[in-house]
Design goal:
The protein is 38% helix and 21% strand. The chain has 16 helices and 17 strands. The chain has helices spanning 85-99, 102-118, 132-140, 158-172, 194-207, 219-227, 233-238, 250-256, 274-283, 291-296, 304-309, 329-344, 352-359, 361-366, 400-407, 434-452, and strands at 7-14, 22-29, 35-40, 51-54, 58-62, 64-69, 121-128, 143-150, 180-186, 212-215, 265-268, 286-289, 313-316, 384-388, 413-418, 421-425, 428-429. The longest helix is centred in the C-terminal third of the chain and has 19 residues, at 434-452. The structure holds zinc ion.
């Protein structure tokens, strides 16, 4: 990486996460892309030759961490509205197979990186079958994990699927660097056999690969796991695949199969009981909380406060834009707070300080990156998100953290930097060209519509 100019960012507020908000604060970023100092602007003397960036009425916070997205599916935004979950996933998988190409996935992944940069997301965990995000993260200059998906509900194809997974992971590892990691994701209980779950977990443990699983998302997944019944069962049986009861709950099943030994990121976890939460905690597994996607698909709301009370690592994810429609972590956090307050009839749940931590340090913890990012403190990488507090819909600012998480939106982000490198500033992207992606995305969307009619 070329050496960066020593840069001092000054703003009305600095939100370090690991310390109280600093009024008229500053962050000094070294030539190595790491944070050199954080504090009141008056206390940080600009070193000789230092570039000074005056950001004015804005808050500097750690870059936002989105722990669950499907970048390759960006063209599905708005294409799958108001469908029940079974139809939603069947139409998505069918249209993806029938209409889309590797070039489409590459464009969609880059498109998602554009959205991420414009909304202050500096770390993004992608779960996908094409692996397109590995290249897109590298090119964009973003940080992230790409969990290569594997599917196979028929135990007879387990060996074949594992061969394919190993080959895909080996290819994707070419993109691995200090910012980008490659992992694996056995997709979900209704698309993965017991044998494939166990084999993937053993592979992940042996190779030290991070792992993610969609788990405990929907009632029909629970019915399949618990009783071998429900909306997913007839389709599987029609393919000659047995649907025996596999566990009392999805989490209990994953524990029995050795999946939790890989300390996976469990995506969704809407349907958990106290025993499940204990298993997640005791195995050191983490949870990706995706409240908007879960609510829009009619699944319900994950027990976030109970997970936190149970000392589980939880990060916030948007999921795909095919279910959420937006990739805006500030909005995701605000809606999370509102939903949990409504559910518990408790105005003390998920206050602004907790939302700030959830979108930064807790997300980094859920992905095992807390030693590198998630707070503004010396020696950590300078992954920054700068939110303007100047717009009429944000002002007046009584509390900067509440202003960022309850009034500002992703489009109020004015600067995004990773390892000190400014990748987005005032509408301009340093590494990506959305205009060049537009024709590919438009064409993919047209083929998608044709395939779905
Ligand atoms: Zn997902």
């Amino acid at each position: 990486m070329p050496e960066l100019p020593l840069t001092l960012y000054r703003a009305a507020w600095v939100l370090p996460v690991c310390a109280d908000p600093i009024r008229n604060g500053a962050v000094l970023v070294g030539t190595d892309g790491r944070i050199a100092a954080v504090g009141p602007a008056l206390a940080i003397e600009p070193p000789e030759g230092c570039v000074i960036e005056e950001l004015g009425e804005a808050a500097i916070l750690p870059g936002l961490v989105n722990v669950h997205a499907h970048p390759e599916l960006a063209m599905f935004r708005g294409a799958l509205e108001d469908l029940c979950f079974r139809d939603w996933i069947l139409r998505l998988v069918g249209a993806k197979r029938a209409a889309l190409t590797e070039a489409d996935f590459e464009a969609a992944a880059r498109w998602t990186m554009v959205e991420a940069l414009r909304s202050g997301i500096t770390t993004l965990a992608a779960t996908e079958s094409s692996g397109a995000s590995a290249r897109a993260l590298c090119e964009a200059g973003l940080r992230g994990v790409v969990y290569q998906e594997v599917f196979g509900p028929d135990p007879a194809v387990c060996g074949e699927m594992m061969d394919g997974l190993r080959a895909n992971v080996e290819c994707l590892r070419a993109w691995e660097c200090d910012r980008v990691r490659i992992g694996v994701s056995p997709h979900a209980p209704y698309t993965v056999s017991d044998a494939l779950f166990t084999a993937t977990a053993e592979y992940a443990i042996a190779e030290g690969l991070p792992m993610a699983v969609h788990a405990a998302e929907s009632a029909i997944e629970h019915q399949l796991v618990q009783a071998g019944e429900g909306d997913f069962a007839p389709g599987l049986r029609a393919r000659g695949i047995d649907t025996p009861p596999r566990g009392r709950t999805t989490v209990e099943m994953l524990d029995r199969l050795g999946v939790l030994r890989a300390r996976p990121l469990l995506i969704h976890c809407v349907l958990l009981d106290a025993d499940d939460i204990r298993r997640v905690r005791d195995t050191g597994s983490a949870v990706a909380h995706c409240p908007v996607a879960n609510a829009r698909l009619g699944h319900g709301l994950a027990p976030y406060p109970e997970l936190i009370a149970g000392n589980v690592r939880v990060g916030l994810g948007t999921d795909s834009v095919g279910s959420n429609n937006r990739l805006d972590l500030l909005e995701e956090a605000r809606i999370a707070s509102i939903l949990h307050r409504a559910r518990l009839a408790d105005c003390g749940v998920l206050g602004p300080a907790e939302l700030l931590r959830l979108c930064t340090l807790d997300g980094a913890r859920a992905l095992g990156m807390e030693d590198t990012v998630g707070t503004l403190e010396p020696e950590k990488d300078a992954d920054l998100c700068v939110v303007s507090l100047a717009a009429p819909h944000v002002r007046p600012v009584h509390d900067p953290v509440a202003a960022v998480f309850h009034a500002a939106r992703g489009c109020d982000v004015v600067l995004t930097a990773v390892q000190g490198r400014v990748l987005y500033r005032d509408g301009l992207l340093a590494t990506l060209d959305p205009a060049a992606l537009e024709p590919v995305m438009d064409d993919a969307a047209r083929r998608l519509r044709e395939a779905m009619t």
